[in-house]
Amino acid sequence: MDTTKNNYSKTQLIALVTLRALIGWHLLYEGIVKLLNPEWSAAAYLRDSKWIFSGFFNWIADTSSVLQIVNFLNVWGLLLIGLGLMIGLLTRTSTIAGIVLILFYYLATPPLTGLTYMFPPEGSYLIVNKNLIELAALVVLLFFPSGKIIGIDRIISKLRRKES
Asked: Is residue 163 included in any domain, yes or no?
């Protein structure tokens, strides 16, 4: 018997799964756009980095072999994390990977006073931007087994219980 489902109301389940799917869609779509654009590279974003890790991000942008690896990991990370979150497959792993990836985005270009970037932000931010909000939402999802509620993780979990 799946006791996880009994711990949440139907509304809570819908909210958790919807949040997971929306973040998954966003990441998956970002990955698809980057994959389909042969000119895409993280170099400009990394070179625009400010704050305490700017030296590291600039080094990545200026080191061709490392940049190629980062570009590959970024595109395929977005695709796989997004897909995992959308369909509820390896949800915990996808969530942790999403947290790490978005944390890097936030640290590269944090919305702090006195920092100006080549690319204008979508709004007026101070400390909190969409990356930080999405990061916080993923942290919340980390504490709820939404993939075992609705997703492929649920099917895998049921199969494992049958085997044992």
From this structure: no
